[in-house]
From TrEMBL:
SUPFAM superfamilies: HIT-like. The lineage of its organism: Bacteria, Bacillati, Actinomycetota, Actinomycetes, Pseudonocardiales. The active site is at 104 (tele-amp-histidine intermediate). This is Protein kinase C inhibitor (HIT family). CDD domains: PKCI_related (cd01276).
Length: 123
């Protein structure tokens, strides 16, 4: 790990230096419960390889991006929220609220989500 990696909370969790509530793990991805949940189910799905944000991950390793989303779906199933629905969210860079610059997907569910709405114009 480089010095800049030492500041990366997720790399420290992956290395076992910091404990976390691991929900699911593959060779390339780890899913952990958020320590400050914004919904009854709030899990972070994190690639073990560090990419700064979702755009960088998509450009450099689209297969890993697909695995992150697939694992999120598996976690939603195991958490019992797949049928009722869930939200997947990437915060990309500071203005969007990203505070850890190691891409991670938020899986939120377990209650009716406010804010964004669906419908014909929104899909």
């Amino acid at each position: 790990m480089s010095d800049s990696d030492m500041d990366d909370l997720f790399l420290r969790i992956i290395a076992g230096e910091i404990s976390a509530d691991v929900v699911r793990e593959t060779d390339r991805v780890i899913a952990i419960r958020d320590i400050n949940p914004q919904a009854p189910t709030h899990v972070l799905v994190v690639p073990k390889t560090r990419y700064r944000n979702a755009a960088e991950l998509a450009a450099k390793d689209p297969d890993l991006l697909a695995e992150v989303v697939r694992v999120a779906g598996e976690v939603a199933e195991s958490e019992g929220i797949a049928e009722s629905g869930y939200r997947l969210l990437f915060n990309t860079n500071s203005d969007a609220g990203q505070t850890i610059f190691h891409v991670h997907l938020h899986l939120l569910g377990g209650e009716r989500m406010g804010g964004l709405t669906g419908g014909p114009a929104h899909g």
